[in-house]
Amino acid sequence: MKLGAHGQMAAQGGPAVRARKVPKDHGGRENSITEASERVLGDSGTTCGYQESDKDGCCDDHPPKSPSRAKDLWRKVKKQYALVEYHVLPEYLRDNEFILRHYRSDWPMRETLLSIFTIHNETLNIWTHLIGFLLFLALTIYTMRQVPKEGALAERLSSMVHMPKRGDLHQLHVELVTCFPALANVPSFLQEHLPHILSKCVPDTPIIAANSTQQCFMQTMKDSLGEELDMMIAGATRVPFLVFMGGSMFCLLSSSFCHLLSCHSSTLTYWLLRLDYVGIATMIATSFFPPVYYVFLCQPMWRHIYLTGISLIGVVTVVVFLVPAFQTAKYRPMRAIAFAAMGMSGIIPAGHKIFFYIHEPVCLETLWYEIGMSLFYLLGVIIYVTRIPERWKPGMFDIAGHSHQLFHVLVIAGAYTHYRAGLIYMNWRDAHGCVPGSLI
Q1: From the annotation, which residues make up the binding site?
Q2: Of 12, 118, 127, 262, which has the maximum CB count within 10 A?
Q3: What residues form the membrane-spanning segments (predicted)?
Q4: Binding-site residue set for Zn(2+)
């Protein structure tokens, strides 16, 4: 049997290459694809996927896979969807013309999810807010595990108005323990202060009807003291603080998902953008809860007005931006301005706090944090709208350093600054509570 050139090369130990021609395409061009189907390495003694030393029937028991099957498997393992440039993107993915390359476009869901571990122009957008979410989750767990310290309880007791002791209060020790189950949790060093605490809730000359029983008197004391005693032991309610942390985590996680999955399809992107807008509005609205609730703890009317007002503003903002027209790149500055205006509405309760409660040290201490938070957010909005620095050198910041990534980092910095201010408010209320008749 004759050997052609191809067979002769194989017999001589050189690499064998088989070429096939592809029919001309519509443009009249002719493509030639050269595929390596077999490689014979004479020096190493490896032939057809097995060693020369295995010639003694080894390959008969374990025949090598055919080159075509191995090649197909290799293609499936190594298959990747190519990143494309801005000018070939579908309209729904065109948002920043200064980022020129490394876009994902219309990828299948599996490849879209796995792209979280690959490099493209959304990688840092995904991970900045995903790491921010994990950070706030850890901070939430850590903060909720903390209880009011003994120092805070002692400070709170010392801030209470001292009133003369009453003999009847000292005689009711047994009844107090029975009537106030929470007293079992009071540290022993606080027991001596209980008469002073109770003196706030019992008038100097209590008027008790002739037919009143001791139990009736104790029930009256329980109703008056119960809320104050619970706050002393458990601290100020953590609900407003948890609302803010939950809103922040929702915003960060929804943003991360939006950047990860938006390349899949226009329909999915449509809903992901709405989720992203809801997350931003939620984060802004919930950031009002800790300062407003703790500052106006003793003034329910103002507390309800401010919290209801910002919640309604958030809902209206979301409804407006659910209109499809406002999702286009044309309205990008308008979206940023609207959310910034929503955040700036916090100037009203902040001004109220400063004007009426400037005598409180906590007012000035938290004010610096709130100013820092506002500067972080404001700088983030400016960078987001102006698209700096990629506007200066298009293409240079495609992978790292472009405006949206900087915006994400500044949002996390602002939220963390607000978290620190929230801790101050919460710890302050743990120590002082709400004294009836006081301004704050």
Answers
A1: 259, 404, 408
A2: 262
A3: 124-144, 241-263, 275-296, 302-324, 336-355, 367-386
A4: 259, 404, 408
